[in-house]
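User: Okay, second chain of the day. Same drill as before: sequence in, structure tokens out.
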Amino acid sequence: MRFRSVLAAALHAATVLSLLASLWLIFAYAPEEAVMGAAPKIFYFHVPIAAVTFTSVFVLLAGAIGYLWTRRRGWDHLTVASTEIGLLFCTLVLITGPIWAKPAWGVWWTWEAKLTTTLVLWVLLAGCLLVRGYAENRDQAARLGAVLGIVAAIDVPIIHKAVDWWRGQHPVVFGPGKSNPLEPRMMLAFEVSMLAFFLLYGSMLHLRLRLARQEDRLEALVEEASR
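Assistant: Same drill. Structure tokens below.
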């Protein structure tokens, strides 16, 4: 238990330090874009946030399958935690995307394929949490949340391929056949920002799972006291 506490403290400390470092690199070290100035700096937030969103959904998928297979509460805790974190980061994707779109396309929102399928993902993640609230009992809530979570996970590869399948306008910065478009200082800021947001995801997941375990203990104590 002591070792776990030390690891958790190290994770949280690394998260804070990497976030501070990324902010300095983004706003004080990385140069502005030659044509659009400081506006494209939202890229350093938008792309890592999108990556964390997809990671959350894949962890949600693992938790959903694990729960449907074993019916163990620990898997459901993982499902709930990843759904909540994924919904938060998906919301940030839909906020930072239009901030980037306005100077690039001249409009805050366009029903471009990648944006639209990302909005669908947001609706599905929100639905995962809503169905839990209307379920008759915990097992039904977990099953409904898991099934809808699997459906949400199916949307992720659709988002990834949306630009290719529907020839969307969304820029593809990194990908097969593309050379690195960032100069070294920009690339360093991007890499540190990516690391910082993944550490933030790890910290949030750890704290949410810890809260879920404490809620289980509290529920068990209440049941025991009522007997």
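Residues 67 and 76 are 6 Å apart (CA to CA).

User: Thanks, on to the next one.
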